[in-house]
Amino acid sequence: MSTPTLVPAPAGTARPAPPSSRPPRQIRAGEPAETLYLVSSACTVLVIVSLWMLLQMLVLSGLGESRAQHLLYNQYRTQLATETAPTGALDFDGKPVAEGSPVALMSIPDLGLHDLVVVDGTASGDLLVGPGHVRSTPLPGNAGTSVVMGRRTTYGAPFAKIADLQPGAPIDVVGAQGPVTYTVTDVRRAGDPIPPLPTGKAPARLVLVTADSSGTLSLLHPHRVVYVDADVKKAHPSGPVFPAVGNAELPMQHDTSGLPLLVLLLALVAALVVAVSAARRHLRDALVWLVAAPVAIALAWAVTDQVMRLLPNLM
Asked: What is the pTM for the complete model shown?
């Protein structure tokens, strides 16, 4: 019997791997890519929403407040011309004045503020469009103590500098019954004594309220409030007032009425992340973000308005 001849394998040919008793690990294609798309999409959308919220709160919110003031000014001027502006808690038809409705015009010449529209209500949502009147007090320009609150930092910051007012500074108010000019008498903070009302036939006081700007990082102390008192010896007769207001309308309080809508908006943000992640597996990233970025910004705008309702109303 002849011995078989062993033929050597050609040079460069890989030798077959020896058999193994352990099968190789099976990796499903697409798993790492799906996770990467989801995480990167979520991070990008989060950055877009966060940056836009910050930009809107500190910069763009002023544009929204300015536009709202313009519309409210035209509305209130029409009411004054037609003698339908409210003189108290009830409107011309005898119904309660709706929150957010214009009730007075206010000018503070020393601060360069002219024809600020004061709306009824002081919850966070009301103060997004301008200063708000505390509904349990007489309207500005009427006899008694009227209280008006305004934001210090965001949404136009109409009351950012009221603590700089000096005694003797005028504050002009135009209401349904005519103009009244108050004179600043004091700037006080929590714990300071409240001066007595002036004497006269129909004495009145206007109290302006905002967050206290004294000290560093004052926004970390949301309970701090500054008050500006302005008096006049004769004002117009006072109309009816609401007996009390809710906790959301008190200084430095938040409003939870927008929480359901905020939850819905956040769900839409999560849905956008999933949609973007799925689209990026089939389309070019540039095309996907060209469509998704405006949607993310629109959602961020709506989310910011609702988040502001959860923050202290004077910030």
From this structure: 0.82
